[in-house]
Write a structure and sequence with these properties.
It is a single chain. Strand 20 and strand 21 (590-595) form a beta hairpin. The protein has 22 helices and 23 strands. It is globular and about 75 Å long. Helix 1 runs antiparallel to helix 3, helix 1 (2-30) packs parallel to helix 4 (79-99) and helix 4 (79-99) packs across helix 11. By secondary structure, it is of the alpha/beta class. A 6-stranded parallel beta sheet has the order 3-2-1-4-5-6, sandwiched between helices. Strands 10-7-13-12 form a 4-stranded mixed beta sheet. The protein is 36% helix and 16% strand. It starts with a helix and ends in an 11-residue tail after the last helix. The protein folds into 3 domains: 2-289, Rossmann fold, CATH 3.40.50; 309-462, Bifunctional carbon monoxide dehydrogenase/acetyl-coa synthase(codh/acs), Chain M, domain 3, CATH 3.30.1650.10; 478-704, Bifunctional carbon monoxide dehydrogenase/acetyl-coa synthase(codh/acs), Chain M, domain 5. Bound molecules: iron/sulfur cluster (SF4) and zinc ion. Iron/sulfur cluster is lined by residues 127, 486-489, 498, 500, 506-508, 510-511, 575, 577.
Length: 709
Amino acid sequence: MSVLTDLIYAGSNAVAGLTEGAVNDAIAKYGADTKVAFPDTAYFFPTIYAATGVKVSTLGDLPACVGVLKSLISNKPELGDALNAGLATAVGAEIIEGLKYVGGGDPYAEDSGIGFVPDPIIRSLGVPLVTGDIPGVAVVLGKADDPADAVNVIKDYQSKGILTFLIGDVIEQAAEGGVKLGLEFRVVPLGHDMTAVIHVVTVAIRAALIFGSVQPGDLSALLTYTKERVPAYVNTFGALNEVVVSAGAGAIALGFPVVVDVDLGENQVPGALESVTDHAQTVKKSLELRNIKIKVKELPIPVAFASAFEGEIIRKKDMKVEFYSGKNVTAELVKMREADEIEDHRIVVDGPDIDSGATEYPLGTFIEVAGAKMQPDFESVIERHIHAWFNYMEGVMHTGQRNQVRIRVSNDAFDKGLRLKHFGEVLYAMIMDEFDAVVDKCQVTLITDPAKAEHMLKEVAMPVYSQRDDRLASMTDESVDTFYTCTMCQSFAPAHCCVVTPERLGLCGAVSWLDAKATNQLNPTGPCRPIEKTGCTDERTGAYTTVNEAVAAATQGAVDTVTLYSILEDPMTSCGCFECICGIIPEANGLIICNREYSGMTPTGMTFGELASMTGGGVQTPGFMGHGRHFIASKKFAKAEGGLERIVWMPKELKDDVAERLNKSAKELFGVDNFADMIADETITTDSMELVDFLTEKGHPALGMDPIM
Ligand code: SF4
Ligand code: ZN
């Protein structure tokens, strides 16, 4: 141990010295009262806040933190203490990085890294992490002796959907090696200074605060959470220096194993610090250390297929062909058939394939499925996945759904041999993989013949779309006899359970009642369990004994009373990955709603991040509640508090997005036309007094309602 502990201490002491100097310099230059904060977070300096409860807000708060940091570095050369020294390095790195943000501006503007990761991004990662879409988090740092080694490891992670953060010169090595970089590709360059590693550490730490409801200052709960629930690990490339080793000790303290590519011999710590000098084994060993299992999808297509390519954008100049509803007919349809009506694994391209020389085609994507347990309700559930599956192909971009679609195929993918029949193979393989419990046979027809595509759209697809819309519109909480739990987020938020009803989708926005029903059918002992809709004890708030029992069982008793329709009385809990949050604004006698993408101020005096930090981790916080975008126009939204009439403010983008449906519901519920126009947004005001003036001028109904509290 001694060589290593010596290095750790040397590194921690070096970072401590740097930190102290940097803090003193900053105070001398800017003054102790100068504000210091990372951008768009409600968790101050997250490591310091989570570990000690101290809320750093000015430079003057920092000398005390440096004191704490130094006290973590004791001089007893034992591993436990050495890990504390590693934590000290993390605290030091956080302070050094935080100081870069003093005085405004983006200190990373000139760096190819992004620096600090804002809260909303962490919240948006909740769902892919819990569904296993992102199976793990890799931290790759240093500089590889042979750049190809780093490139291969990173590409391998990318193909497995692992979210990879890069620190150091490995960023350029990856970029030069052709790795597509960016959050949308799940390979995120953080920065070049080794201290930038803190930006991934605080992601893990904020996950504990956001989803795990870990209390600030509870260091042991924090370390337990990161160790057990954040599937992260570290790979270092190149020679180790004292700072890297000391940062590695910090990672190990958080429960993240470190794999180095130099031979540490007897200095290895099995399970925590291991040497893998053969780079072909780096990925395998790393995944094993965190027990991350990857479902391999071997598809007979000539391009890579991975969730990491979902966000890939294909620009016009890189595009070989396009299917675009603005120019040609497009339609996507999944239709249930009798078993004898279709032939399993039959894939037909009806019309020219994309190598016919044209650059634009119509496209009817017609998928027919049969199965003993298949139900018409699952057609749309499967159909909605077409978007993701097409996007997973490297070099294919898909947006939209149904008859409003744009699909682009890149020159690169085309040159590799990608053709339409491969689209069919992808659909077939994914449906048989993910929906095998309900689909026994699947046949795919890709129609590019203009007349036939037109026929499919008009005669086959449109009638089905409108039937489905009618069914969705008539589907109310009253019209069904079963609700569903969803506990998918429990891997991060152990005390959280969503209750999904026809008029209230899961707060992540990704799970509708139909989805929950299908999930239950696919996996009866999985995250979605049926709740029999009986035992209503309060119609107004939507209180049911069966719902309470189901939630109590699902949360091991952590929550035993929730209502479906109230924000103030036993509101539903939040995990942390909600699309929107609503909160009461007593001055305006109403509710404001804020979506995750909006980073500005709201009339409550709080940003989305600050509002969001009021709830989460499965805790009930009356007055604040996370919910999906789609819930905003629901007739059950805040029904107990008077319903949609209470909405007084939303960011403009969100308002525009929901206006049509909101106006329709408002007209039906309380007879107001164009209700969205009465709702303020940030272009009108973010001040609560001005908000009241605006509402008064518009005659907003909330002002005349009973006091909200
Ligand atoms: Fe998580 Fe709720 Fe969405 Fe399920 S419905 S994935 S529990 S947020
Ligand atoms: Zn969630």
